[in-house]
Amino acid sequence: MTFDVPADAYARFMGRFSEPLGVSFADFAGVAPGMSVLDVGSGPGALTTELVERVGASSVSAIDPSPPFVASLLERLPEVDVRAGAAERLPYDDDVFDATLAQLVVHFMSDPVGGLREMGRVTRPGGVVAACVWDHDGGDTPLSLCWTVARELDPSAVDESGLAGARQGHLEQLCAEAGLTDVQATKLHVDVEFASFDEWWEPYTFGIGPLGAYIGSLDHDGRTALRTGCAERLPAAPFTVRASAWAARARA
């Protein structure tokens, strides 16, 4: 699995969903002018951009372990404090931010509880710690159709339904284990339209994330069968894909 890919490739793969999700997620987290905010696992900046719109670049910090994403974000938002690093070892002092957010990141943390605990550490007492993860367990994500077809063709394929936070109630449990308080949860939804099947399919071949890695491991016949199976399941273009994410908001 890799996220060490060009920022524009990720934008085509997941950015079309993560950008509108960022608006709903920032609303849920209560991000408003005057706040100092950290975006943990920022990627190429879908949520970061939304945070800048709300509080101004000088009040936003962002961190991600992928060098291409960090470089892209530094170029695009030079006034934001962008750093390379992991959620489990945040390079910030205690009690720095009014809100610390992690969009579509907790399920990829090597230590989700440790990462959320670190988010709480760098957030001022009473400040907001928030996270969201696609509902992989409920089969309601941008990737669900492709994973469903993949598992029908290859029952040994391991999808993302077992990842941290990807099932109802698990994000809240992780937040509580991390010592966060006043945990509240909701489900966020986004709808994205595609003009053609190829527009939908091509980003899956970029090798991004667990599904991209799985597709990259297939031989020509396996990939063709997966592509054909997905094409048979999707409606005629243009079509809309709905995706849902579990979100949790807590207090440091």
UniProtKB/TrEMBL annotation:
InterPro entries: Methyltransf_11, SAM-dependent_MTases_sf. The keyword Magnesium does not apply. GO terms for biological process: methylation. It comes from the Bacteria. The lineage of its organism: Bacteria, Bacillati, Actinomycetota, Actinomycetes, Propionibacteriales. This is Class I SAM-dependent methyltransferase. The keyword Transmembrane helix does not apply. Residues 38-130 form the Methyltransferase type domain. One of its GO terms (molecular function) is methyltransferase activity. Keywords: Methyltransferase, Transferase. CDD domains: AdoMet_MTases (cd02440).
